[in-house]
Amino acid sequence: MEATTAQANELERRVDLSIAIADVEKEMEQRLKRMGKNVKMSGFRPGKVPFSIVKQQYGDQARHEVLSEQLDRVFGETVTEKKMRVAGYPRIEPKTSESTSHLEFSAIFEVYPEFTPGDLSTAEVERPVLEVSAAEVDKTLDILRKQRVSYADADRAAAKEDRVVIDFLGKKDGVPFAGGEATDYPFVLGQGMMLPDFENAVEGAKAGESKTFDLTFPADYHAKDLAGQTVQFDITVKQVQAPVLPELDAEFATSMGIADGDVTKMRSEIEANLKREVKRRIEAKLKDQVMEALLKANPITVPTALIDMEVQRLMQAARQDMEQRGMKTKDFPIQPEWFADQAKRRVSLGLILAEVVKTEKLQASPEQVRAMVEETAASYEQPEEVIRWYYAQPQRLQEVEGVAIENNVVAWVLSKAKVTDKAAVFDELMGQKQ
Fold this sequence. Notes:
Elements: E1 12-20, H1 21-36, H2 51-81, E2 86-94, E3 102-111, E4 124-129, H3 134-147, E5 150-153, E6 163-172, E7 175-188, H4 196-202, E8 210-216, E9 230-244, H5 250-255, H6 263-297, H7 304-324, H8 340-360, H9 366-377, H10 383-391, H11 394-416, E10 418-423, H12 426-430
Parallel strand pairs: 4-10
Antiparallel strand pairs: 1-3, 2-3, 5-9, 6-7, 6-9, 8-9
Helix pairs in contact: 1-2, 3-6, 6-11, 7-8, 9-10, 9-11
């Protein structure tokens, strides 16, 4: 039972396994005798079926089971003795042998890569820096007000952010085309619901006005028969409404969950929430850079077996997501190659992180986990209930512990890398259009 050298790649190993035929036959016979005590067969009382018939009926099944168990045992003993860390499952192949006393097999498998975490002293990381001020609170309040906008009739020309109601009819070469006609159609100017040239034609018109204009569809327009074509639209503006934003008063504060309508308290809560969100996004950007630095510093070979398993997990997750969205996955066959790069990256990072955590002793402490749970709970109305919810189920704490370990890795990498602080732009950090 000797291990040979690598095969298809540097992680592949081949181990020779030898199983005594006498051991297989002995265990098979014992198993068949145990089975015979419960076998039911027409013409015999339960447990009284002759052994020869039991063996004829179930011999192949018993031999296969015994041989599989023997191979598992011998394989496990061999890789343990040789201190091999097996990745995935072995491929067992029978060998041609002249032995009359033993069955010979080869087990082909991959092992986990062995490596020492690479040097990170030359890695460069930009750390976003942003202090939440009154200006950010005001900007957030403006967004919240716009989300609660109402509209009132306006006796003037339509402008950006106005809500308009129109009738329109599109013609190509003087003939109406499919999808080019609507009555009492509402949309808000500037939100991109219509093509820019269409909105430009509506902007500046008053309620009751009609106009005709030419419009050229983009070359990549989704309707192929209209892509790149010039058509003519007749429109009639039937209503122009100006946006009306709610006042920053007690009523607005109440709608934001402030029971007593205290505007100052509302601003304080928004500021606290913003600080938590800014912190979370900065941590996410740092983590992304750290993971890239770890991958670059540790160009390891990844077991194909682990990548294949991760591909399957990603495919299953994609199917579940599609089904939750009401899509039928049988109508949209998912291809493994779509997930190959993502799977390789995830497996590589998993192996690198595990090695870094082990080597540098970066496991999460109970105090870290507790602090993270309390921070998460702070954004809820009854934090203590949220904390109890986490500690009531070990699996929930394991997820928090995983994040805490990643945070420890990030802190360790930042202590080794070249870190430069860079002022962050609020809108860019929060992913908002300016």
